[in-house]
Specification:
The chain is α/β, with parallel strands linked by helices. The chain contains five helices and nine strands; from the N terminus they run E-E-H-H-H-E-H-E-H-E-E-E-E-E. The protein has one domain.
Length: about 220
């Protein structure tokens, strides 16, 4: 199979070093573009690390991410378009966001092919998620993490959107200090978001390009 027809898997760096991810192109995603241009200071997308990276020092990544955007969102994947996966954990949407229901459908196909892998998908698109899983079975190895767009507005486990398992919340560095449980360790050493457990509200201080921002 020509590699150009395979879904691309990225090796992550920084906080996500040691993990691999299936991502798409943030800078061509209409939802991401709209959210990034918000005038509201309390919307985390305004400070999006992915927009910053892909428009500057990681601009070369756009080609492979756009390849995934096109492949995942247009039609159902064939079995031989799904790459071999031997990892325990795979991140979905380290860059980018769900584009449409076909995108989510193809992620489900990948999850169902590799049932021993834990797939953790971050998304703000609860509309796409609800519409799709109202009519389709959710894989048992797929953890859905609702990426809360509002800063300092923690969504706890009693208010998780339908079909999601956890929420990921951003707060100012000096607020909700007792609730901050994502505090600088690498994801591979924590995996709180990547496993089913009794901690379903994840809280992190706002970071800009991986560094704590004390101005937000």
């Amino acid at each position: 199979m020509n590699k150009n027809n395979l879904v691309h898997i990225s090796k992550m760096t920084g906080k996500l070093e040691g993990l691999k991810a299936i991502s798409t192109n943030t800078v061509t995603n209409n939802f991401c573009l709209k959210m990034n241009k918000t005038k509201s200071d309390n919307i985390i997308c305004k400070y999006c690390y992915s927009h910053s990276m892909l428009n500057t020092y990681r601009k070369s990544m756009q080609e492979c991410l756009q390849h995934n955007s096109n492949l995942l969102s247009t039609k159902e994947l064939k079995d031989n378009q799904i790459p071999f996966i031997n990892e325990l954990y795979i991140r979905i949407n380290a860059h980018g966001e769900l584009i449409n229901q076909m995108h989510l459908h193809n992620i489900v196909l990948i999850c169902n092919k590799y049932k021993r892998t834990h797939f953790a998908l971050w998304s703000k698109r609860k509309d796409i998620v609800k519409k799709y899983f109202d009519n389709n079975k959710k894989p048992t190895n797929l953890i859905l993490v609702y990426s809360n767009p509002k800063i300092n507005n923690i969504i706890d486990e009693n208010n998780i959107p339908k079909y999601f398992n956890k929420t990921f919340n951003n707060v100012s560095h000096n607020k909700f200090i007792d609730k901050q449980n994502c505090t600088g360790q690498q994801c591979k050493d924590c995996v709180l978001c990547y496993e089913f457990n009794n901690i379903n509200t994840i809280v992190e201080a706002v970071k800009i390009n991986g560094r704590l921002d004390k101005n937000i």
